[in-house]
Design brief:
- The complex is a heterotrimer of chains A (about 220), B (about 45) and C (about 240).
- With about 220 residues, chain A is an all-alpha fold.
- Chain A has ten helices and no strands.
- The longest helix of chain A has 30 residues.
- Chain B is rod-shaped and about 65 Å long.
- Chain B is built from one helix and no strands.
- Chain B is mainly alpha-helical.
- The N and C termini of chain B lie far apart (about 55 Å).
- In chain C, helix 3 packs antiparallel against helix 4 and helix 4 packs antiparallel against helix 5.
- Chain C has one domain.
- Chain C is mainly α and about 240 residues long.
- Chain C is globular and about 70 Å long.
- Classes of the chains: A mainly alpha (about 220), B mainly alpha (about 45), C mainly alpha (about 240).
- At the B-C interface, helix 1 of B face helix 2, helix 3 and helix 6 of C.
Amino acid sequence: MRALLLRDLRLAMRAGGGFGLGLCFFLILTVLVPFGIGPDRAGLAPVAPGILWVGALLACLLSLDRIFALDHEDGSLDLLATSPLPLEGVVAIKALAHWLTTGLPLVIAAPVFGLLLQLPLAAMPWLVLSLLLGTPALSVLGAFGAALTVGLRRGGLLMSALVLPLYIPTLIFGAEITRRGAEGAPVAAPIALIAGITLAAAALIPFAAAAALRINLR
Amino acid sequence: MIELGKYAGAVIGAYGVSLALLGGLIWHSLAANARARRDLERQERNG
Amino acid sequence: MSIWEYANPAKFMRTTGAMLPWLVPAAVVATVVGVVWGFLTPDDYRQGSTVKIMYMHVPAAMMAINIWVMMLVASLIWIIRRHHVSALAARAAAPVGAVMTLIALATGAIWGQPMWGTWWEWDPRLTSFLILFLFYVGYVALWSAIEDPDSAADLTGVLCLVGSVFALLSRYAVLFWNQGLHQGASLSVASGERMSAVYRYPLYLAMLGFAALSLALILIRTRTEIRRRRLAALQARELRS
């Protein structure tokens, strides 16, 4: 399992995707937003949590097809399916690798982007915390969407249509934590809920994704 | 004719949209069913 | 005699073929009478004549949710017992449910315009229905994207299970996110303030009519799917011989 994780991470680095592109997309997004809604602090600060969260969603979405598509093309997914490793474990490891290469960098870099969008300093820890708690769910749910569409030649658009509705609860709670944090309102409830979603998704979705993979590999 | 008052546009619009959507759905269902039946009958006659 | 006999396509075609000539007129009569009766009810003292929109809005919203539940049950039956009719019924139901959701959304928007002064409000109920619509669209898109019918049935079944959980989760997340303008359920028994009988009986009839109409449409569409499947099987056999 550790070998698989290391292999996926190494592939992500070598292909130049992983860290670089997701962050680059996020940066471009934060640069574009002020052009769209004007540069003044009063206009940017209230929408910053939402923009950052939607940006995280999209950055995550863009890299989803890498989870299984490459392995499906070169046949290594079939090898993994017949290996003694349970397919649920393979899915979980691949989702973890995806999170380490796209989710985690976003979490670490989020304060910088928050500064660019005039997010109040008081909200910064809450932004980081909400992303830290929420992005693993995005990766796991994305792995499910990628598993559903792995056999399709042009599945990218379909996958976005399937995955984005699944992201809604995470997005709502994540942005809510940051917004409440910025106002100094109590944040315990959304934190507990987003953590619950992430834990439940990490525990259960790999089974659904593995089932979908088995159907697609039949 | 029933007096709808100042909201006549909203009521008639809502019914119009609903009936158009329902009508489209019914038409599509019946047309697809007729097509499937025709194709199947032709296939069974020839095959 | 067990209920599973209806999972046999031939038996299903025979039974529904005998049922539809009764079901379709009954559905049409109940819908038309319910809606026309509703149209003749007096105006509400607060909402004016817009209260008549209710006879489309409420039944459509009810069916939008019920059809999703029906799809969930049909998907479960397919996944557990592998009855093809069940998978095809789930597929046939999705467009009907999507149209019902769309009717509920459209009439809601048109109703909201004079009542709340806005076409669209990010109200929890409206938002939940929009999310439900997205799930319907994704489900239909996945069905049409996959060529192999059994794989398509399996994958959409898995999607329906996961989607149901997340649709429900979204419903509560949306409630958390925004308390709304929408009034509570008008027909719930628990609520103290109940709608007067003048409005209630036509509404019951319209709901019955919409339910029968949806059932008839789903059966017709399932029959279409069964015929298509049989046609494909015959053509495949011809190619092989």
